[in-house]
Amino acid sequence: MSLRKRLLNLTVLLGICYSCVHAAVYGPVISANFPDPAILVTPNVTYAYATNSGNINIQVATSYDNGTTWTLLNGTDALPDVGPWAIVNSTWAPDVIDRGDGTFVMYYAAESPSQNTHCVGAATSTNAVGPYTPEAQPIACQTPGGGAIDPAGFQDVDGQRYIVYKVDGSSLGGGGPCGNANGQYSTPIMLQMMEADALTPMGNPVQILDRGPQDGPLIEAPVLILHNGTYVLTFSSNCYNTDLYDISYATAPSISGPYTKASSPLLVTGDDGLTGPGGATPTPDGTFMVFHATVNFNPLTRYMYTATISWNGTVMSV
Ligand SMILES: *[C@@H]1O[C@H](CO)[C@@H](O)[C@H](O)[C@H]1NC(C)=O
Ligand SMILES: *[C@@H]1O[C@H](CO)[C@@H](O)[C@H](O)[C@H]1NC(C)=O
Ligand SMILES: *[C@@H]1O[C@H](CO)[C@@H](O)[C@H](O)[C@H]1NC(C)=O
Ligand SMILES: *[C@@H]1O[C@H](CO)[C@@H](O)[C@H](O)[C@H]1NC(C)=O
Ligand SMILES: *[C@@H]1O[C@H](CO)[C@@H](O)[C@H](O)[C@H]1NC(C)=O
Ligand SMILES: *[C@@H]1O[C@H](CO)[C@@H](O)[C@H](O)[C@H]1NC(C)=O
Q1: Rounded to an integer, what distance in angstroms lies between the CA atom of residue 148 and that of residue 36?
Q2: Running along the chain, 318 residues long, what does each successive block of 10 average in pLDDT?
Q3: Which of 87, 102, 205, 229 matches a 20 to 30 Å C-alpha distance to 131?
Q4: Ligand 1 centre from 262 Cα, in Å?
Protein backbone atom coordinates (compact mmCIF):
# COMPACT_ATOMS: atom_id res chain seq x y z
CA MET A 1 0.00 0.00 0.00
CA SER A 2 1.34 3.41 -0.92
CA LEU A 3 1.91 6.10 1.65
CA ARG A 4 -0.86 8.08 0.01
CA LYS A 5 -3.29 5.17 0.41
CA ARG A 6 -2.26 4.72 4.04
CA LEU A 7 -2.89 8.41 4.65
CA LEU A 8 -6.22 8.07 2.87
CA ASN A 9 -7.25 5.14 5.07
CA LEU A 10 -6.10 6.96 8.18
CA THR A 11 -7.94 10.15 7.27
CA VAL A 12 -11.07 8.16 6.42
CA LEU A 13 -10.86 6.49 9.85
CA LEU A 14 -10.49 9.88 11.48
CA GLY A 15 -13.34 11.27 9.41
CA ILE A 16 -11.16 13.86 7.65
CA CYS A 17 -11.69 14.54 3.97
CA TYR A 18 -8.41 13.67 2.25
CA SER A 19 -9.39 13.48 -1.41
CA CYS A 20 -13.14 14.09 -0.89
CA VAL A 21 -13.95 11.55 -3.62
CA HIS A 22 -12.88 8.17 -2.25
CA ALA A 23 -11.50 6.30 -5.20
CA ALA A 24 -10.07 2.83 -5.50
CA VAL A 25 -8.32 0.17 -7.51
CA TYR A 26 -10.25 -3.06 -8.12
CA GLY A 27 -9.09 -6.41 -9.33
CA PRO A 28 -7.86 -8.35 -10.96
CA VAL A 29 -11.20 -8.21 -12.76
CA ILE A 30 -9.93 -10.44 -15.61
CA SER A 31 -7.63 -13.17 -14.33
CA ALA A 32 -6.18 -14.05 -17.72
CA ASN A 33 -3.43 -12.50 -19.83
CA PHE A 34 -5.23 -9.36 -21.06
CA PRO A 35 -2.58 -6.67 -21.66
CA ASP A 36 -2.95 -3.06 -22.82
CA PRO A 37 -6.72 -2.97 -22.27
CA ALA A 38 -9.06 -0.46 -23.91
CA ILE A 39 -12.56 0.38 -22.70
CA LEU A 40 -15.72 1.20 -24.65
CA VAL A 41 -18.80 2.32 -22.73
CA THR A 42 -22.18 1.87 -24.45
CA PRO A 43 -25.61 2.39 -22.88
CA ASN A 44 -26.09 -1.18 -21.63
CA VAL A 45 -22.76 -2.91 -22.05
CA THR A 46 -19.15 -1.97 -21.30
CA TYR A 47 -16.49 -3.64 -23.44
CA ALA A 48 -12.76 -4.17 -22.96
CA TYR A 49 -10.30 -5.14 -25.71
CA ALA A 50 -6.72 -6.37 -25.40
CA THR A 51 -3.55 -7.43 -27.19
CA ASN A 52 -3.34 -10.85 -28.87
CA SER A 53 -3.16 -14.00 -26.79
CA GLY A 54 -2.93 -17.56 -28.08
CA ASN A 55 -4.43 -17.52 -31.56
CA ILE A 56 -6.83 -14.63 -30.78
CA ASN A 57 -5.70 -11.40 -32.49
CA ILE A 58 -7.83 -9.04 -30.41
CA GLN A 59 -9.37 -10.27 -27.17
CA VAL A 60 -12.70 -8.91 -25.96
CA ALA A 61 -14.52 -8.93 -22.62
CA THR A 62 -17.92 -7.60 -21.53
CA SER A 63 -19.38 -6.07 -18.39
CA TYR A 64 -23.11 -5.56 -17.73
CA ASP A 65 -22.63 -3.65 -14.46
CA ASN A 66 -20.65 -0.56 -15.51
CA GLY A 67 -17.26 -2.24 -15.40
CA THR A 68 -17.55 -3.96 -12.02
CA THR A 69 -17.59 -7.62 -13.10
CA TRP A 70 -16.21 -8.82 -16.41
CA THR A 71 -16.52 -11.86 -18.65
CA LEU A 72 -13.70 -12.70 -21.02
CA LEU A 73 -15.20 -13.97 -24.30
CA ASN A 74 -12.37 -16.41 -24.57
CA GLY A 75 -13.46 -18.05 -27.82
CA THR A 76 -14.07 -14.73 -29.59
CA ASP A 77 -11.60 -12.89 -31.82
CA ALA A 78 -12.82 -9.33 -32.42
CA LEU A 79 -10.36 -9.06 -35.35
CA PRO A 80 -10.16 -12.45 -37.07
CA ASP A 81 -8.84 -10.81 -40.28
CA VAL A 82 -5.95 -8.42 -39.54
CA GLY A 83 -5.96 -6.90 -43.04
CA PRO A 84 -3.87 -7.39 -46.17
CA TRP A 85 -1.02 -5.24 -44.84
CA ALA A 86 -0.59 -7.16 -41.57
CA ILE A 87 0.17 -10.59 -40.16
CA VAL A 88 -1.68 -12.54 -37.46
CA ASN A 89 -0.41 -13.00 -33.89
CA SER A 90 1.24 -9.56 -34.01
CA THR A 91 -1.70 -7.38 -32.99
CA TRP A 92 -1.19 -5.08 -30.01
CA ALA A 93 -2.99 -2.52 -27.89
CA PRO A 94 -6.34 -1.96 -29.62
CA ASP A 95 -8.78 0.88 -28.99
CA VAL A 96 -12.44 1.08 -30.02
CA ILE A 97 -14.67 4.12 -30.50
CA ASP A 98 -18.39 4.38 -31.20
CA ARG A 99 -18.59 6.59 -34.30
CA GLY A 100 -22.21 7.42 -33.44
CA ASP A 101 -23.65 6.25 -36.78
CA GLY A 102 -24.07 2.57 -35.95
CA THR A 103 -20.42 1.81 -36.69
CA PHE A 104 -17.65 1.00 -34.22
CA VAL A 105 -14.07 1.73 -35.24
CA MET A 106 -11.21 -0.36 -33.89
CA TYR A 107 -7.65 0.99 -34.01
CA TYR A 108 -4.86 -1.56 -33.62
CA ALA A 109 -1.18 -2.10 -34.26
CA ALA A 110 0.15 -5.07 -36.21
CA GLU A 111 3.36 -6.16 -37.88
CA SER A 112 3.61 -5.15 -41.54
CA PRO A 113 5.95 -7.54 -43.37
CA SER A 114 6.59 -4.97 -46.12
CA GLN A 115 7.73 -2.33 -43.58
CA ASN A 116 9.37 -4.78 -41.19
CA THR A 117 7.81 -2.74 -38.37
CA HIS A 118 4.45 -2.44 -36.66
CA CYS A 119 1.96 -0.03 -38.24
CA VAL A 120 -1.35 1.29 -36.91
CA GLY A 121 -4.56 0.60 -38.78
CA ALA A 122 -8.33 0.63 -38.39
CA ALA A 123 -11.21 -1.80 -38.81
CA THR A 124 -14.98 -1.33 -38.59
CA SER A 125 -17.97 -3.30 -37.35
CA THR A 126 -21.65 -2.67 -36.64
CA ASN A 127 -21.26 -4.92 -33.58
CA ALA A 128 -19.01 -3.82 -30.72
CA VAL A 129 -17.64 -7.36 -30.22
CA GLY A 130 -16.89 -7.64 -33.94
CA PRO A 131 -15.90 -9.21 -36.17
CA TYR A 132 -14.22 -6.00 -37.34
CA THR A 133 -13.43 -5.61 -41.06
CA PRO A 134 -9.96 -4.13 -41.62
CA GLU A 135 -9.23 -1.22 -43.92
CA ALA A 136 -7.01 -2.11 -46.88
CA GLN A 137 -4.14 0.21 -45.89
CA PRO A 138 -2.63 1.12 -42.52
CA ILE A 139 -3.03 4.68 -41.20
CA ALA A 140 0.63 5.19 -40.22
CA CYS A 141 3.85 3.17 -40.20
CA GLN A 142 6.62 5.62 -39.15
CA THR A 143 9.07 3.03 -40.49
CA PRO A 144 12.31 5.07 -40.06
CA GLY A 145 11.32 5.85 -36.44
CA GLY A 146 10.80 2.16 -35.57
CA GLY A 147 7.12 1.74 -36.46
CA ALA A 148 3.79 2.98 -35.09
CA ILE A 149 1.92 1.31 -32.19
CA ASP A 150 -0.63 1.93 -29.42
CA PRO A 151 -3.28 3.94 -31.32
CA ALA A 152 -6.24 5.48 -29.49
CA GLY A 153 -9.14 7.54 -30.78
CA PHE A 154 -10.27 10.95 -29.50
CA GLN A 155 -13.12 13.29 -30.42
CA ASP A 156 -12.81 16.95 -29.48
CA VAL A 157 -15.75 19.09 -28.28
CA ASP A 158 -16.11 20.54 -31.80
CA GLY A 159 -16.57 17.02 -33.19
CA GLN A 160 -13.12 16.83 -34.80
CA ARG A 161 -11.67 13.32 -34.67
CA TYR A 162 -8.06 12.42 -33.92
CA ILE A 163 -5.89 9.47 -33.06
CA VAL A 164 -2.78 9.45 -30.89
CA TYR A 165 -0.07 6.78 -31.21
CA LYS A 166 3.55 6.01 -30.30
CA VAL A 167 6.48 6.02 -32.71
CA ASP A 168 8.19 2.83 -31.60
CA GLY A 169 11.80 4.03 -31.40
CA SER A 170 12.50 1.54 -28.63
CA SER A 171 12.11 -1.26 -31.22
CA LEU A 172 15.22 -0.06 -33.07
CA GLY A 173 17.47 -2.00 -30.73
CA GLY A 174 20.52 -1.05 -28.74
CA GLY A 175 20.50 -3.30 -25.71
CA GLY A 176 19.23 -2.94 -22.17
CA PRO A 177 15.61 -2.80 -21.05
CA CYS A 178 13.35 -2.50 -24.08
CA GLY A 179 16.38 -2.02 -26.32
CA ASN A 180 16.86 1.66 -25.57
CA ALA A 181 19.14 1.57 -22.54
CA ASN A 182 21.06 4.70 -23.42
CA GLY A 183 18.00 6.56 -24.55
CA GLN A 184 19.46 7.01 -28.01
CA TYR A 185 16.04 6.75 -29.70
CA SER A 186 13.00 8.96 -29.35
CA THR A 187 9.59 7.45 -28.66
CA PRO A 188 7.39 10.38 -29.70
CA ILE A 189 3.66 10.45 -29.12
CA MET A 190 1.94 11.68 -32.28
CA LEU A 191 -1.42 13.41 -32.75
CA GLN A 192 -3.09 12.72 -36.11
CA MET A 193 -6.21 14.58 -37.21
CA MET A 194 -8.79 12.29 -38.86
CA GLU A 195 -11.66 12.82 -41.30
CA ALA A 196 -15.23 12.44 -39.97
CA ASP A 197 -15.09 8.74 -40.92
CA ALA A 198 -12.43 8.33 -38.17
CA LEU A 199 -10.54 6.17 -40.68
CA THR A 200 -8.81 8.59 -43.06
CA PRO A 201 -5.89 10.72 -41.85
CA MET A 202 -6.06 14.50 -42.54
CA GLY A 203 -2.75 16.28 -42.98
CA ASN A 204 0.42 15.34 -41.17
CA PRO A 205 0.73 14.07 -37.59
CA VAL A 206 2.29 16.38 -34.98
CA GLN A 207 4.47 15.32 -32.06
CA ILE A 208 2.93 16.17 -28.68
CA LEU A 209 5.26 14.40 -26.20
CA ASP A 210 8.49 12.37 -26.02
CA ARG A 211 10.45 10.36 -23.49
CA GLY A 212 12.71 12.13 -21.00
CA PRO A 213 15.40 10.86 -18.63
CA GLN A 214 12.79 10.08 -15.96
CA ASP A 215 10.92 7.81 -18.40
CA GLY A 216 13.68 5.25 -18.93
CA PRO A 217 13.73 3.77 -22.44
CA LEU A 218 10.30 4.87 -23.57
CA ILE A 219 6.87 6.35 -23.21
CA GLU A 220 3.96 4.54 -24.89
CA ALA A 221 0.28 3.58 -24.65
CA PRO A 222 -1.05 7.15 -25.06
CA VAL A 223 -4.75 7.89 -24.57
CA LEU A 224 -6.18 11.40 -24.85
CA ILE A 225 -9.21 12.70 -22.96
CA LEU A 226 -10.60 16.17 -22.28
CA HIS A 227 -11.31 16.89 -18.62
CA ASN A 228 -12.92 20.19 -17.62
CA GLY A 229 -11.20 22.10 -20.42
CA THR A 230 -7.80 20.43 -20.00
CA TYR A 231 -6.39 17.88 -22.47
CA VAL A 232 -5.08 14.93 -20.48
CA LEU A 233 -2.75 12.42 -22.14
CA THR A 234 -2.26 9.25 -20.12
CA PHE A 235 0.75 7.08 -20.97
CA SER A 236 3.10 4.44 -19.60
CA SER A 237 6.82 4.91 -19.13
CA ASN A 238 9.77 2.55 -18.59
CA CYS A 239 10.01 -0.98 -19.99
CA TYR A 240 6.80 -3.02 -20.01
CA ASN A 241 8.49 -6.22 -18.80
CA THR A 242 10.06 -4.63 -15.71
CA ASP A 243 8.54 -3.47 -12.44
CA LEU A 244 9.42 0.11 -13.39
CA TYR A 245 6.50 0.18 -15.85
CA ASP A 246 3.94 2.72 -14.68
CA ILE A 247 0.92 4.82 -15.54
CA SER A 248 1.48 8.54 -15.83
CA TYR A 249 -0.06 11.51 -17.61
CA ALA A 250 0.56 14.95 -19.02
CA THR A 251 -1.81 17.90 -19.37
CA ALA A 252 -2.19 20.74 -21.87
CA PRO A 253 -4.41 23.78 -22.36
CA SER A 254 -4.86 22.99 -26.07
CA ILE A 255 -4.94 19.73 -28.00
CA SER A 256 -1.63 20.28 -29.75
CA GLY A 257 0.11 21.18 -26.49
CA PRO A 258 2.35 22.08 -24.88
CA TYR A 259 1.85 19.01 -22.66
CA THR A 260 3.34 19.14 -19.15
CA LYS A 261 4.12 15.81 -17.51
CA ALA A 262 2.62 15.30 -14.06
CA SER A 263 5.07 15.69 -11.18
CA SER A 264 4.39 12.12 -10.06
CA PRO A 265 2.94 9.08 -11.84
CA LEU A 266 -0.63 7.93 -11.29
CA LEU A 267 0.26 4.31 -10.43
CA VAL A 268 3.59 2.56 -9.86
CA THR A 269 4.72 -0.82 -8.55
CA GLY A 270 3.77 -1.16 -4.88
CA ASP A 271 0.62 0.94 -5.10
CA ASP A 272 -2.34 -1.23 -4.06
CA GLY A 273 -0.09 -4.30 -4.27
CA LEU A 274 0.34 -3.88 -8.04
CA THR A 275 3.42 -4.78 -10.07
CA GLY A 276 4.22 -2.91 -13.28
CA PRO A 277 0.84 -1.21 -13.77
CA GLY A 278 0.47 0.08 -17.33
CA GLY A 279 -1.46 0.29 -20.55
CA ALA A 280 -4.25 2.34 -18.98
CA THR A 281 -7.32 3.56 -20.84
CA PRO A 282 -9.55 6.07 -19.03
CA THR A 283 -13.16 6.52 -20.11
CA PRO A 284 -13.66 9.74 -22.12
CA ASP A 285 -15.30 11.40 -19.09
CA GLY A 286 -12.21 10.73 -16.95
CA THR A 287 -14.06 8.96 -14.14
CA PHE A 288 -12.88 5.35 -14.57
CA MET A 289 -10.08 3.38 -16.21
CA VAL A 290 -8.95 -0.10 -17.16
CA PHE A 291 -5.27 -1.07 -17.01
CA HIS A 292 -3.07 -4.13 -16.63
CA ALA A 293 -0.56 -5.20 -14.00
CA THR A 294 2.00 -8.00 -14.13
CA VAL A 295 1.28 -11.18 -12.21
CA ASN A 296 4.14 -13.22 -13.70
CA PHE A 297 7.26 -12.10 -15.58
CA ASN A 298 8.05 -15.48 -17.17
CA PRO A 299 5.95 -16.11 -19.12
CA LEU A 300 4.89 -12.45 -19.05
CA THR A 301 1.29 -12.45 -17.82
CA ARG A 302 -0.73 -9.30 -17.24
CA TYR A 303 -4.22 -9.29 -15.73
CA MET A 304 -6.79 -6.52 -16.09
CA TYR A 305 -7.67 -4.17 -13.22
CA THR A 306 -9.92 -1.12 -12.98
CA ALA A 307 -9.83 2.09 -10.97
CA THR A 308 -12.07 5.04 -10.33
CA ILE A 309 -10.30 8.34 -10.98
CA SER A 310 -10.60 11.47 -8.91
CA TRP A 311 -9.40 14.93 -9.78
CA ASN A 312 -8.13 17.97 -7.94
CA GLY A 313 -7.97 20.55 -10.71
CA THR A 314 -5.71 18.86 -13.25
CA VAL A 315 -4.15 16.44 -10.75
CA MET A 316 -5.39 12.87 -11.19
CA SER A 317 -5.45 10.22 -8.48
CA VAL A 318 -6.85 6.73 -8.03
C1 LIG B 1 -6.03 20.17 -4.15
O2 LIG B 1 -4.82 20.78 -4.58
C3 LIG B 1 -4.56 21.99 -3.88
C4 LIG B 1 -3.37 22.65 -4.57
O5 LIG B 1 -2.30 21.79 -4.67
C6 LIG B 1 -4.32 21.67 -2.43
O7 LIG B 1 -4.06 22.84 -1.71
C8 LIG B 1 -5.56 21.00 -1.86
O9 LIG B 1 -5.31 20.60 -0.54
C10 LIG B 1 -5.94 19.81 -2.69
N11 LIG B 1 -7.25 19.32 -2.25
C12 LIG B 1 -7.46 18.06 -1.90
C13 LIG B 1 -8.85 17.75 -1.46
O14 LIG B 1 -6.59 17.20 -1.94
C1 LIG C 1 -30.66 -1.17 -23.14
O2 LIG C 1 -31.48 -1.90 -22.26
C3 LIG C 1 -32.81 -1.41 -22.22
C4 LIG C 1 -33.55 -2.14 -21.11
O5 LIG C 1 -33.36 -3.52 -21.24
C6 LIG C 1 -33.44 -1.61 -23.61
O7 LIG C 1 -34.75 -1.11 -23.61
C8 LIG C 1 -32.61 -0.85 -24.64
O9 LIG C 1 -33.10 -1.12 -25.93
C10 LIG C 1 -31.15 -1.27 -24.57
N11 LIG C 1 -30.37 -0.41 -25.42
C12 LIG C 1 -29.51 -0.89 -26.30
C13 LIG C 1 -28.76 0.13 -27.08
O14 LIG C 1 -29.32 -2.07 -26.46
C1 LIG D 1 -0.60 -17.97 -33.86
O2 LIG D 1 -0.41 -18.35 -32.50
C3 LIG D 1 -1.05 -19.57 -32.17
C4 LIG D 1 -0.93 -19.78 -30.67
O5 LIG D 1 0.37 -19.54 -30.24
C6 LIG D 1 -0.43 -20.69 -33.01
O7 LIG D 1 -1.10 -21.90 -32.71
C8 LIG D 1 -0.56 -20.36 -34.48
O9 LIG D 1 0.11 -21.34 -35.25
C10 LIG D 1 0.01 -19.00 -34.79
N11 LIG D 1 -0.28 -18.67 -36.18
C12 LIG D 1 0.66 -18.27 -37.03
C13 LIG D 1 0.23 -18.03 -38.44
O14 LIG D 1 1.82 -18.08 -36.68
C1 LIG E 1 -24.76 1.86 -14.77
O2 LIG E 1 -24.69 3.28 -14.81
C3 LIG E 1 -25.87 3.87 -15.31
C4 LIG E 1 -25.63 5.36 -15.47
O5 LIG E 1 -25.01 5.88 -14.33
C6 LIG E 1 -27.02 3.57 -14.35
O7 LIG E 1 -28.21 4.13 -14.85
C8 LIG E 1 -27.17 2.06 -14.26
O9 LIG E 1 -28.14 1.75 -13.29
C10 LIG E 1 -25.87 1.39 -13.87
N11 LIG E 1 -26.04 -0.05 -13.98
C12 LIG E 1 -25.63 -0.90 -13.04
C13 LIG E 1 -25.89 -2.33 -13.30
O14 LIG E 1 -25.04 -0.52 -12.03
C1 LIG F 1 -12.49 -20.31 -21.58
O2 LIG F 1 -13.40 -20.16 -20.52
C3 LIG F 1 -13.92 -21.37 -20.06
C4 LIG F 1 -15.00 -21.05 -19.05
O5 LIG F 1 -14.56 -20.05 -18.15
C6 LIG F 1 -12.81 -22.21 -19.47
O7 LIG F 1 -13.30 -23.45 -19.04
C8 LIG F 1 -11.74 -22.45 -20.54
O9 LIG F 1 -10.63 -23.09 -19.99
C10 LIG F 1 -11.28 -21.13 -21.12
N11 LIG F 1 -10.39 -21.37 -22.23
C12 LIG F 1 -9.23 -20.75 -22.35
C13 LIG F 1 -8.45 -21.08 -23.57
O14 LIG F 1 -8.83 -19.94 -21.55
C1 LIG G 1 -13.10 23.23 -13.84
O2 LIG G 1 -12.07 24.17 -14.05
C3 LIG G 1 -12.35 25.44 -13.48
C4 LIG G 1 -11.18 26.36 -13.80
O5 LIG G 1 -10.84 26.27 -15.15
C6 LIG G 1 -12.51 25.31 -11.98
O7 LIG G 1 -12.88 26.58 -11.46
C8 LIG G 1 -13.60 24.30 -11.69
O9 LIG G 1 -13.66 24.09 -10.30
C10 LIG G 1 -13.30 22.99 -12.38
N11 LIG G 1 -14.39 22.06 -12.17
C12 LIG G 1 -14.19 20.82 -11.79
C13 LIG G 1 -15.40 19.96 -11.65
O14 LIG G 1 -13.07 20.36 -11.57
Answers
A1: 15
A2: 48 44 81 98 97 96 98 96 97 98 98 98 98 98 98 98 97 86 89 98 98 95 98 97 97 98 97 97 98 97 98 96
A3: 205
A4: 15
Residue 208 lies in a domain: yes
- The whole model's pTM is what? 0.91
135 as an active site residue: the answer is no
In a domain, 15, yes or no: no
CATH number of the domain bearing residue 99:
2.115.10.20
Judge whether 9 lies within some domain: no
Using a 6 Å cutoff on CB, does residue 41 contact ligand 3? no
Which domain range does residue 55 map to? 25-317
Taking the CA of residue 54 as reference, the ligand 3 atom at the shortest distance is: 4
Q: Residue 36 contacts by C-beta under 8 Å, 6 or more apart in sequence?
A: 50, 51, 92, 93, 94, 150, 221, 278, 279, 292
* 255 located within any domain: yes
Distance 215 CA to ligand 4 centre (A): 38
- Total count of domains within the chain: 1
